[in-house]
Amino acid sequence: MSYIDNCEKYHKQIVDAFEPARCVENFFSADEIDQLRLLQFQLADRLKYTSTSNNIQPVCDIDTVFERLPWLADRMRTEIGDFSDHHTGNYYITTQLHDAHVDLLSRQETDRPEFEWSNRVIPYKSVVIPLIISERADAYTAFFHQRHIGYSFTFDRVNISEQENSDYTIIRTYPDFYNIDGKISNKGEYVREKNFLFPQIPPGNLIGLSIEDALPYEVGNIMIFDACQIHASTVKRNKPNYRWLKSGMNIQFYKEI
């Protein structure tokens, strides 16, 4: 069976693992952060970037990160339980706010021979690991109530994003989203949030989305959320500070089936 077939066959198992997004404070020591930060330069075999964005991705094999840092898997299991030995994810260095997206296996990845293991897994959890943030920065990640089961997507119905140099499919017509209880989410009009705003996202792209929580981007902490959960960068409405440099790592965890 293929990855996408697994998502359909094991839909209930995926949904049953849904939980609210959460932050674990002071999860990593300064030394552990230094090790993770350095590996993005030591392991990178190329850089992914475009001239139209302020985003650089040192391309590394995430499974190799776990091999180089044997303590990492044990630390993660203390928070999310058992998971597959195979992972996806990326490092990033950026000054830009990210669009609404979901970090999952891409269609292109599942077609590659080195991702043959994707035929035996289903999506489980994602973890964002902040590694660098400018002094006095005030950065947040918004996690929406809505989940998408399947391939990785960037959500852009108003056509402002481009596909250039990205494995993520940019989707113009949104599929069904699921709430934390597994029910199909209502695609009503976007309701403006009281405390947070999205200067990088046109309101048309937010129709059908609503914030579950917004967590601060702070080095040492980690953010744990469902791999299927849609998320985006956000800023405080009363203090819209998004002039910063940040670097981090996101890891997708899977369950063997």
Describe the structure.
The protein is α+β, with helices and mostly antiparallel strands and 257 residues long. It has one domain (3-256): Jelly Rolls (Sandwich). The chain is built from 6 helices and 14 strands. Strands 1-12-6-14-4-3-2 form a 7-stranded antiparallel β-sheet. A 4-stranded antiparallel β-sheet has the order 10-13-7-11, with no helix packed on it. The mean pLDDT is 92.
Strand tally is 14
What is the level-2 CATH architecture name? Sandwich
- Could you tell me the strand content as a percent range? 25-35%
The gross shape turns out to be globular
TL;DR?
This protein is α+β, with helices and mostly antiparallel strands and 257 residues long. The chain contains six helices and 14 strands. It has a single domain, classed as Jelly Rolls (Sandwich), CATH 2.60.120.
